[in-house]
Automatic annotation (TrEMBL):
Protein name, entry field: IPT/TIG domain-containing protein
Keyword match Oxidoreductase: no
Top-rank taxon, per record: Eukaryota
Keywords: Signal
CDD domains per record: IPT_PCSR
Pfam families, per the entry: TIG
Keyword Signal included in the entry's annotation: yes
Length: 219
């Protein structure tokens, strides 16, 4: 019970399964009661717009019934990704469309034939679609004195690079990411004390078809 008077009762409904439920208002002394039916409903009527960018960001408006009014009780998924909830009412949800693009993780956990683990990228030949992101991360112990970065290089000669032109600043540990629409060669830069660098290639494949995703509303 939220509020009550001689002519008015306000209460918060408990969770329940969909369908018609029997309800009753009973006086505390038990001498009188009123019975009535209450229907729990959940329906989705429309989603607008029905098209969006690969990069995400479109505001989706979902209409229906039974969504409630608490943002944290509602989840919307477009495919496998969550749509960021903006507003919720019992009949309308608005959310920000997530990107369709993906992020590929690359670390320095590959094993070099001479120096072992840590001196080779975990992925050297990466195939992605237009607009996808590659995220690099690396780390070396402070006592090693080794630093690494990300330098652009010629895809046909990935170990040839300009030391003054880094994309990710050299450091003992770090992470950075970049979105790609074109092929790209990358290298760690020459490692102090080792005199060599290790690199890889990114091949960008143009998206040639639309992606159709299901929309799931959870309340």
């Amino acid at each position: 019970i939220v509020a009550a008077s001689t002519s008015h009762i306000e209460c918060t409904l408990p969770e329940n399964e969909l369908g018609v439920k029997k309800c009753a208002v009973v006086r505390s002394d038990g001498f009188s009661s009123i019975e009535f039916d209450m229907e729990y409903v959940l329906s989705l009527t429309s989603v607008s717009p029905n098209k969006g960018s690969y990069a995400g960001g479109s505001i989706l408006t979902i209409t229906g019934e039974g969504f409630g009014t608490v943002d944290s009780d509602v989840e919307v998924r477009v495919g496998q990704k969550k749509c960021e909830i903006l507003t919720v009412s019992d009949t309308t949800i608005t959310c920000k469309q997530p990107p369709v693009t993906r992020t590929v993780q690359v670390g320095n956990s590959g094993q070099h034939e001479t120096f072992g683990i840590g001196y080779k990228w975990s992925k050297e030949n990466i195939n992605i679609l237009t607009g996808d992101t590659v995220e690099w991360s690396w780390g070396y112990s402070p006592e090693s004195g080794v630093t690494s970065g990300i330098y652009p290089s010629d895809p046909d000669d990935i170990l040839s690079y300009d030391a003054s032109n880094f994309y990710c600043q050299p450091s003992q540990s770090g992470t950075c990411s970049k979105r790609f629409d074109f092929d790209y060669g990358f290298t760690s830069g020459t490692l102090k004390g080792y005199g060599f660098s290790f690199g890889g290639n990114i091949v960008v494949i143009e998206r040639t078809s639309n992606v159709v995703e299901d929309i799931l509303v959870l309340v």
